[in-house]
Design a protein that fits this description.
This protein has helices at about 10-35, 40-75, 75-110, 115-120, 125-140, 175-215, 225-260, 270-295, 295-330, 335-345; strands spanning about 145-155, 160-170. By secondary structure, it is mainly alpha-helical. Pfam families: 7tm_1 (PF00001).
């Protein structure tokens, strides 16, 4: 049985505001990185990670919204929304972790093998990785989706308020369902937190050592080499922000997997909210790292805004030019004047 639906209005508003911020920032990230001038295997992977992060907070916000509405209307439909949203949030959060780990491995290979590395980590490899990781995460959560029915159970608390619990009936037997959460916690801790953190940390150190060695061995470097170095440093910082953002969640999952009876603040509802906010903050920082460390991204972002301003100014100038032509043309024929005015209105 799930905990009763008890999300507060303040928590809902906070999640919705954070969702809007992440949606706007990650939309700019995807648009700029996927523009024809910036489109590379690395930029495509960064855009995919931004998409996964946005979907994670989207379904995470849907949990709170459905919990708030269902908890007050005592509607069992909210139980279905909460469970589906929780499953999808887990899948996309896991995909974000795996994709960031793959990004670290990809950069490590490129740093170690500067000539053959880019060919090994090309667009085809990214596509294969994205498909395999998506299928793997869906397969991992498949037992949790084998639901026969969800019942809404209304209980009365000590303060005489009615609360709704979600009682889920699975197709699997009760013995399998009882051990499933424990198995998920072990898999989540080792496969989605500990091992990725170790791999990313190793790749970060390795890339920094390679960059430092190249600086020491070459006194002068070409513009292309400097661009590669800045890209490596930028991606290393993205990895570091990811590890910091995931650290509270990793501690929480560790305690839930191995110390289920030990009290821990991060495993409470307040601690869980803190872990989620830390994750969202790490999502929002990424765009500022791109702006600060990537000239490509800055140029793409400026061209995105400048093109809009220039097209608006060009349209305005064309209208003013047509109006000036109208004022200089004698209106001997009223039908011609009406036709010119109509053309201006259409533009």
């Amino acid at each position: 049985m799930y905990n009763y639906l008890n999300s507060t209005l303040g928590n809902v508003l906070l999640k919705v505001i954070l969702l809007m911020v992440v949606f706007v920032t990650n939309s700019f990230v995807a648009i700029v990185w996927l523009s024809p001038s910036n489109r590379t295997p690395v930029s495509i992977l960064l855009s995919i990670i931004a998409l996964y992060d946005t979907l994670t907070i989207t379904f995470g916000s849907a949990i709170d919204v459905a919990s708030y509405i269902g908890g007050r209307s005592l509607s069992v439909d909210a139980c279905y929304v909460v469970m589906a949203s929780a499953t999808l949030a887990f899948i996309f959060h896991s995909l974000s972790i795996i994709s960031t780990t793959y990004l670290a491995i990809q950069r490590c290979v490129i740093c170690a093998f500067p000539f053959s590395g880019p060919r090994l980590c090309g667009l085809r490899t990214n596509i294969i990785f994205a498909i395999v990781s998506l299928v793997s995460m869906i397969a991992l959560k498949m037992p949790d989706l084998l639901i026969s029915d969800i019942e809404g159970v209304i209980n009365i608390l000590d303060d005489n308020t009615s609360v709704l619990y979600c009682n889920v009936n699975y197709m699997l037997n009760d013995e399998a369902i009882s051990v499933l959460p424990k198995i998920y916690m072990y898999i989540r801790f080792f496969a989605l937190h500990l091992i990725p953190a170790c791999i990313i940390s190793f790749c970060m150190v390795f890339c920094l050592l390679i960059v430092n060695r190249k600086k020491m061995t070459t006194s002068e470097s070409s513009e292309q080499q400097r661009t590669k170095t800045r890209t490596t440093l930028m991606l290393t910082l993205i990895m570091f922000i990811f590890i910091v953002g995931e650290f509270p969640t990793t501690i929480s999952v560790f305690y839930r997997a191995f110390f289920t009876k030990e009290p821990m603040w991060l495993t409470t509802s307040t601690g869980n909210r803190f872990c989620n906010i830390t994750l969202v903050i790490s999502y929002m920082i990424n765009i500022w790292v791109y702006i600060a460390m990537s000239k490509q991204f800055r140029d793409g972002l400026l061209s995105l805004f400048c093109n809009r301003v220039m097209s608006s100014n060009k349209s305005k100038a064309m209208n003013e030019s047509k109006l000036a032509n109208i004022s200089s043309v004698p209106c001997s024929n009223s039908s011609n004047c009406h036709k010119i005015c109509d053309d201006v209105k259409e533009t």
